[in-house]
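Q: I have 493 residues here and want to know how they pack in 3D. Can you give me a structure?
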Amino acid sequence: MGTMVATATRASRGRAGARRSEDARGEGRGAPRPAAPVSPLDRLVATASAAGCPRDQLRNFLASGYVPQPKQLEFHAAARLCDQPDGPDQVGFGGARGPGKSHGVFAQVALDDCRRWPGLKVLYLRKALKQAREQFDDLRRRVLRGVEHEFNRSAGVVTLWDDSRIFLGHFHNEADVDAYLGLEYDVIAIEEATTLSAAKYKALRDSNRSSSGWRPRLYATTNPGGVGHAWFKARFIEPWRKGEEAFTRFIPATVDNNAFLDADYRRRLEENSGWKLRAYRYGDWDIAAGQYFTNWRHEVHVIEPFQIPPAWTVWAALDYGFTHPTVCYLLARDGDGTIYVLDEHRQSKWLVGRHAQAIREMLARNRMEIGRLAMFVAGADVFARRGNSETTIAEQYAAEGFGLSAANDDRVNGAAQVLRLLGDERQPAKLFVFDRCAHLIECLPSLEHDPHRPEDVLKVDVDEDGNGGDDPYDAMRYGVMAQPAGSFVMRYA
């Protein structure tokens, strides 16, 4: 939220003269002079510079009476990076409730983007029409109070002095998004982005284009949860966590980053419990409504790879697919029964020979030989004979040197076992995942309860691009349920 900048008071000439007289008398000579007071404006300029905001951007904001807070400044700096040919074209902002993300996005669009590039066409999209209208009008009044503009309330269009236009869009059902497809928008701002599916987000991205020389961009704000939780996390959160952002940027923020919200609002957020507390108060992307593995903690369960001691038991598990991906995990167990998921292979539309080669390479990365696996389990479908096929998938793997055995496919007990191994506040975790198992790390916290069978995990298909799905969980579950008895000495390659 913005507020008018207060000008710092200056020391009086009389006080300065008194100091000079004192120095002339020789008093206090050699003592350090007190630092000059820092004005709020100076602090703001320093904070903006540290965030990466260019001076002209800050001037655009201050000229209209909008003073960004530190996290808003980080968002504004990321938005300016979109100007660069190799910069991002999508910026996510927020995570928790109350950090001022809506205010920041509207200010970026109206006070910086449109000011620098007259004639921009902006789509400001929110889910519910009534809420969208109320918020849009509220943002317009606060952000544009010192800016020449016209507002067509019935059409939901703000026209700025330079002929830039901001269109209010809304969708009650996902089908409503189709009304905006095929049109051209220089900037798209989506509030509550996780209320959209991956397919609709992609469709909107196809409408984010420009013929004016402006580099198109999309701003997305949201809280954890919703139908789009998994794709938003994969697109924005995971690259941010890994420090591997290319065409996206994510700016995390919570209510603690908004100095203008009162203590009562913070207290109300603290009154939530379970997933709502973690999502709305703290912006935790490893939690969502209906989540099955609520005890998953990225900071606890995801660890850096290390060399597995020779005495540990090692085995593998596979979930086969063709259109769906084939997923294979290498697992290890220490002497205390703690399980480590060491490495991952995931690929669709490959024949068995290519998968087998990739699995051999995975073993080689971990300095292991095929013959030293305690067992290699797979789902029952690999043992089924398909049509007129002369060999089963299991027989094809056997020809590659991998002898598969049938996995325990008890879904309910498998889910219960994973829950137990993840631990909680009372029981330490006994299941850890190496950070190179990216698909499993994305999959596990996104899984939900089956509404028709709450003790089971809801089956999830891959999307049209082959992303997502519960196949990594199925393969890992097979491995957890296998747990070969005893231990053995592992030979290194």
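Q: Anything worth noting?
A: The chain has two domains: 41-281, 300-482. The domain at 41-281 is CATH 3.40.50.300 (Rossmann fold).
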